[in-house]
Every structure is written in structure tokens, then in C-alpha cells.
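Let us work through a complete example step by step.
Step 1: write down the sequence.
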Amino acid sequence: MNILLELFVVTFRVLWAFVLAAAKWLVRPKEKSVAGQVCLITGAGSGLGRLFALEFARRRALLVLWDINTQSNEETAGMVRHIYRELAEAAPKVAGDGEKDVLPHCSLQVYTYTCDVGKRENVYTTAERVRKEVGEVSVLVNNAGVVSGHHLLECPDELIERTMMVNCHAHFWIVIKEKLFDEAI
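Step 2: predict the structure and record it as C-alpha cells.
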């Protein structure tokens, strides 16, 4: 009898989880607007960091891009500036009867900084420069990372240390020590 009761409870919980998941899928929560907010993206020179930068640019965020590679970081910034120009051209003009733009008009800019997040002092000095030149950061996308592409036992000690510095320690240096950001994702 006890087993049948437990089976009924488990079945009910599984079905209830499906109902809740379907409800969340159908009624999506309102997305946070990042328009006009300062968003810092680490590892913005390529890969996911670049894609994050382009998406945040489409959403009218003021971007601060960090990457160890200056050239690829500037390439990403060029793509972002192109999106900003397209947004400025496509923005509807304010009508004479007082209609306002759907999206808030703000000064869209992109700032690039060369920063090796695996080096604590480099993170600290770059963070101070951002504070002085841009202001407080609202959103952090801590995306920088190192991938070795080798099995752990095949990696030299230096690569393991570098991976830990960038993929683990850098998160603490950027978020906790500096208290530079309002929120991190």
C-alpha cells in the first residue's frame, strides 16, 4: 500500500513539473532592459564574447569590452559600432505631436580595453580605468576563458595554472575584490 502511495506522489510531482514548465514556456517573464546601461563583457574578442557584445549592442547597451587580444577586440568594437549606426538610422523620428521613441535614446558607445584577466594586477588597473573613464558597470558578462583541448594528464603544469587563473580566479578578482559591478550574469 505504501509503495502505491509513493508511486502516486512521484507521478503527480512529475506531471506537476511538466505543467509548470509548460506554463513558464507559454507565459515568459519580462526581459530585463539593458538599454543605456553599462555592460562589461570579458573575452569579447571572439566566440561567445563577440556574440554577447553584438546582442547587447542590438539591445542598446553601452559596452565595455575586455580581451587579451587588442586586434580582435577592436574588430568586435567595429561590428558593435556598425550596429549602433544601423540603430541610429532606423530610429523613428519624434513626431510633432509629442510621440516618443519606443526605445530610450541614449549615447551609444563602445569602449575597448586590453586586459589579461589571468593577471590580478592587470584586472585591478583595467577596472580602475573603466571606473574613471566610463563609470560604474551595471551588468557583467564574465565570459573570458581558456580551453586547452588536451586531456588533463597531457597538459603541462603551466597550462593548468593558466586555465585555473583565467577560468576560476579571475571571476573572484573581477567581481568580489573590486566590487565594480551592480550585478553579474
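Step 3: interpret the result. Residues 94-103 have pLDDT under 50 and may be disordered.
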